[in-house]
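User: My collaborator sent over this chain with a note saying "see what the structure looks like." That's all I know about it. Can you take a look?
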Amino acid sequence: MTTVSRAYVSRLAGLPVFDPNGDRVGRLRDVVVALRVGTACPRALGIVVEVVARRRIFVPMGRVTSVDPGAVVLASGTLNLKRFEQRRGETLVLGELLDRTVTLRETQRPATVVDAAVEQTRTGEWQVTRLAVQEPGRLGRRGQLHQVPWAEVAGLALPETGQGAETLIATYRELNAADLAHALQDLPEKRRHEVAEALDDERLADVLGELPEATQMGILASLAETRAADVLEEMDPDDAADLLSELSNVDRNRLLELMEPDEAEPVRQLLQYSEDTAGGIMTSEPVILAPDATIAEALARVREPELTPSLASQVYVCRPPSATPTGRYLGLAHIQRLLREPPSTLVSGVLDDLEPLRPEAPLTEVTRYFATYNLVAAPVVDDRGRLVGAVSVDDVLDHLLPEDWRERARRG
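Assistant: Without extra context I'll predict from the sequence alone. Here is the result:
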């Protein structure tokens, strides 16, 4: 099949959705988009997939690797199976955009939306770029059908002004997580909670990781417990563990019980370590490969958009199992070395035998380790020789800076 860069949503409806292994996940039922202010094209947030027992779930667009004429393929087989709930600021293409009456800007004539095209930009983002619209006909006949750019249609965009959460979210949607976190801190508490409620789980998880602890706690407390658990699942395990460590034992355990077991387990493991040690600041989800993996496979893994630059800088090779805590840790390979070797070479043949950190290593030792070896990430291995996680330089800096450094940066 040929991957397409533009597809009309009505033609995607009902297509089978497959995981990377070729196993069928379900069928595509709709596309979720975020309308923007003015004439900017809406951004596709994700797809609604119908799985077993007619349950509909949400899959972020970043996890869609290809859209073919006969199928949609995902980057991962790990899915959040919680039932899809539409949030404020989200619009369903098939459910809400089609059959809407709009105005053609050039002629000022009314028309009806009959389809919408999603297109992947050069940056990899998917947007609604074109609409198929039909003008009213005469004497009961069908009118002329047009394909027009999104910007040539009026009546669908959010208002330029207004205090609705949808407009605020559309204004903030282009900001990175850190800048959006700063913007939220400038809002009154009630308004901040309204915007947080309207953000999708993945976006809110990214923003929470950039907020001071007090603000994190306030937003988490404003959410329904089931929603709070969903957001914690989307956070990096180390960020989720840091946030949960500030709660009472009762509240912490209740949220962990509400999380999916596979998502809660790495967080529980991180909560066992003191926060001022390598184990307390590491992430339990570095890039882990088996000894028989090739360099081509390693490079494919570090291209995953969810990875931070520091975690994508190197891969860790371990005996099975490949989830932390792994089998015996064998070594790491830096991305610079991977780029210099033939793609068919086994990654186990280019390993660096650098001595790893121990989970109980204090922050001062971790800092010296990074400075000595000029690293941006480092492996953490337990006394049984198993990889339990990796410390990244941004986590080290976060714990070296004063607790209120985010607040100081915002004021500055």
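A starting point for your reply to your collaborator: The radius of gyration is 24 Å.
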